[in-house]
Write a structure and sequence with these properties.
Helix content: 25-40%
Oligomer: single chain
Number of helices: 9
Order of helices and strands: HEEHHEEEHHEHHEEHEEHEE
Strand order of the largest sheet: 2-1-5-4-3
Radius of gyration: 32 Å
CATH superfamily of the largest domain: Histidine kinase-like ATPase, C-terminal domain
Strand content: 15-25%
CATH architecture of the largest domain: 2-Layer Sandwich
């Protein structure tokens, strides 16, 4: 039995010391020698508090070991930080218990030592990133306040006085004066739209709503109703497939669908009525499909939004999801270049991924992967993810019927 006991100790991957009741080391396993880079001669038959020039003579450890020796009271997860001669600064978690042996044999104490230095460093790094994220969110909130008050007010004045100038003094202006006035009004209008879009972009993480059960079919139909004028102007149509119900922020999910549908109607080919198809299916997906949540084996929703528009060169797929990025002439296709950046931000807040496939003149297909259900910690209005490039390389290809080449922002 003693041999079996020693074999078990030797095979453990966790550092382990076997002490007698005088706290002298009877045995140390290979993991201990490997971790602390010491030889058996410097450890065995020596008192614990004499090891490593007294490195283990720690008041908190003395107190709990005394209880183990005197009362047999075990302890778990005692955290110590120490500078060791051969391995430097380490954070260790210690566990100990007294082991009663056969009649007449002295009890032993098993002292297990787990090096958690890397875990603690990783946790500290995560906390640092969280603090940076909170700071970034506060900056966004500050910007939103400035944009909605300090920037909007002078714009309103410019628009109001230019409108008054046009209504009361237009007959007094020559052609050049009228042209200048029109330019002022258009520039003020573009600036107001840009500020509004930037506010929308910042609100994705700073003013999000709690997640709840949302029917994507209902949201898509509401978006179609909102786009009636655009459909009439372009002669376009939208085909909505059977879409699932997901846990999401309903306001943001509607905005995601509306931005993508509007995008398909906006970037249509001259003389070709736009057709936008939105379809979806659900499946268990590997971890990499939604890196923000990392939920292996969970159910995910694959959504495709396909159009027959002008398309774009697929080498620019990462650019189209960045703020202010435009691939087409602004005079021909008005906009601020914020719409798809908002889409990416919404998808990432929901733990998903978005990318696109496209080719010039052959339309665009946007691919979105979203979890059907959110974990409990995700049900928070301000949940956000760090900004980063579009997850173009991490999204599995949808079934063949949805995977045609596609278009732009």
């Amino acid at each position: 039995m003693e041999e079996l006991f020693q074999d078990l100790i030797a095979t453990l991957r966790e550092s382990l010391l076997v002490l007698d009741l005088d706290l002298r080391v009877r045995v140390a396993n290979r993991a201990f020698y490997r971790t602390f880079q010491v030889e058996p001669v410097a450890v065995e038959n020596r008192h614990l508090y004499e090891l490593e020039n007294g490195q283990w003579d720690i008041p908190s450890l003395r107190a709990v070991l005394q209880q183990v020796v005197e009362n047999g009271t075990p302890f778990e997860d005692l955290s110590i930080e120490q500078e060791f001669p051969h391995i430097g600064h380490k954070v260790m978690l210690l566990n100990a218990r007294r082991v009663e042996r056969a009649v007449g044999a002295m009890p032993l104490i098993l002292l297990a030592l787990d090096d958690v230095t890397e875990q603690r460093l990783a946790a500290a790094t995560i906390q640092q990133y969280l603090r940076k994220l909170e700071w970034s969110n506060r900056e966004l909130q500050d910007f939103a306040y400035i944009a909605s008050h300090d920037l909007q007010e002078p714009l309103r004045a410019i628009q109001a006085f230019s409108d008054r100038l046009q209504s009361k003094h237009a007959p007094s202006l020559n052609a050049q004066g009228l042209d200048y006035l029109a330019r002022i009004q258009k520039a003020a209008g573009r600036m107001r739209t840009l500020i509004s879009d930037l506010l929308t972009y910042s609100h994705v993480t700073t003013q999000g709503k709690p997640f709840k059960s949302v029917s994507l079919t209902v949201l898509a139909q509401e978006c179609m109703a909102d786009l009636t004028k655009r459909l009439e102007e372009t002669g376009g149509s939208i085909a909505v497939g059977d879409l699932p119900t997901v846990e999401a922020d309903p306001v943001q999910m509607r905005q995601l669908l509306q931005n993508l549908l509007d995008n398909g109607l906006k970037f249509h080919r001259p003389g070709v009525p736009p057709l936008v198809k939105i379809e979806a299916h659900c499946a268990a997906t590997p971890e990499f499909a939604a890196p923000a949540l990392n939920l292996p084996g969970s159910q995910f929703c694959y959504i495709s939004v396909q159009d027959n528009g002008i398309g774009f060169d697929e080498k620019y797929v990462d650019r189209i999801f960045s703020p202010f990025e435009r691939l087409h002439n602004q005079k021909q296709y008005a906009g601020t270049g914020i719409g798809l950046a908002v889409c990416r931000r919404i998808v990432e807040r929901h733990g998903g991924s978005i990318t696109a496939r496209s080719a010039p003149g052959q339309g665009t297909t946007f691919f979105i992967v979203l979890p059907l259900h959110q974990p409990p910690e995700a049900h928070h209005p301000l949940r956000s993810s760090p900004p980063g490039p579009a997850q173009a390389a991490t999204i599995p290809v949808l079934p063949a019927q949805a995977a045609s080449p596609g278009e732009n922002t």
